[in-house]
Amino acid sequence: MAENNDITLDEDEGIIELEDEEGNITRFEFVDRLEHNGTVYYALVPAEYDEDEGASEFVVLKETVIDGEDMLATVDDDDEYQTVGEMFLQRFSELPELDVEGLDEV
User: What share of the chain is helix, strand, coil (3-state, %, to 5)?
Assistant: First the structure.
């Protein structure tokens, strides 16, 4: 499981900056979060996408605590990832303001 050592959330913009183990920072837009079997999952889209085309993929990360700090980690189990990804897609389809045509989990 790859952990993101630093999580920065800009509440005003809905942007989450994640720093990986190698110090690289990637910006994501927060889309949604849900709880499943006691674990909180986040759906994020890359912050740098073509506005005209929209985001075509989203990433699922899960909240975990490591050494007393909240972290977001990759979901390594394929079945878990698939289940949660489908749950997000179902939720997205119920939101009228979110265009989910062509949105796939990564």
Answer: 15, 45, 40
Tell how strand 57-66 and strand 104-105 pair up.
Answer: parallel
Return d(Cα 4, Cα 105) in angstroms, integer. Answer: 19
Q: What is the pLDDT of residues 4-61, one digit of tens each?
A: 544 544 445 678 888 878 888 888 888 899 999 999 999 998 887 666 565 568 899 9
Q: Which one-letter amino acid corresponds to residue 53?
A: E
Domain boundaries, the chain: 3-96
> Taking the CB of residue 8, how many other CB atoms lie within 10 A of it?
11
Rounded to two decimals, the pTM is: 0.71
